[in-house]
Amino acid sequence: MGTSQTSSLHRVGKSRHLAPIVLREIKAEMARQARSQAWLAHELNLTQAAISRRFRGEVSLSLNELDSIADVLGCAPLDFVLAPERHSAQVAS
Description:
Helix 3 crosses helix 4. The chain is mostly helical. The protein has 6 helices and no strands. 76% of the residues lie in helices and 0% in strands.
């Protein structure tokens, strides 16, 4: 992992809890792609209720699930972690 990615992860980790950030970014990417929870559930071979529980934070996403979600959305798992940092950098410039 590069130095800039490492420092970004430390800043995100110190200032906020990671799970809500990741979930927010997954939801945002799904919205950009006009994808529903039902679609994601089908792609991951889960029920829509199981996806909903994860999105509400009632059940934690596993790293394997995060990897699978990123894969079906055409992203890297780290994109969901670094997205707030990238947004902040774009707003500042």
